Task: structure prediction
Amino acid sequence: MDIAVPEMPINLLSVPGGRIAVKVSVPARPPVHAVLPAEKIVENLQAIEQNLGIERRNRYMAHQHAMVCASIVATVTDHIMTEEVSIGVAVAALWLAMNHPREREEMRKALGTYLRSSGRGCIALEAFADQTFSLGVAPDPIADAQLERAKTDAAALNAEVRTAAD
Result:
């Protein structure tokens, strides 16, 4: 899997330092955009695992990854995107990147590098009708062209959220 890194920063959202921008796209729904506080990564990832009943020893298993992605798709498809729901979706997408069955080390390293160098990073998830998805980590919000290059097979607290259509 290639990790999507834009050749030039693309600012779809204004992301302040100490934050992680998240974009989640699901077929036939407007994209969900959220900005999560970087200092709450561990707390937020633990909350997702608790909420979804994921045992620590199973967090890197492909079936857990597929279950979390399916949960995201169902949530975005079936719910009104309130602030609380949008935050949960964003944290689940962050969980996917940080616990990817094959690429977690690369994604963790990339996000850590971006947070250390600029104080911000981005996670982007795009789900497709055939139940595959693209997942990417980048220093700035990812445009669809960069996200497309990152294909793979396969609540949160105190965040600023905005839901927007592209």
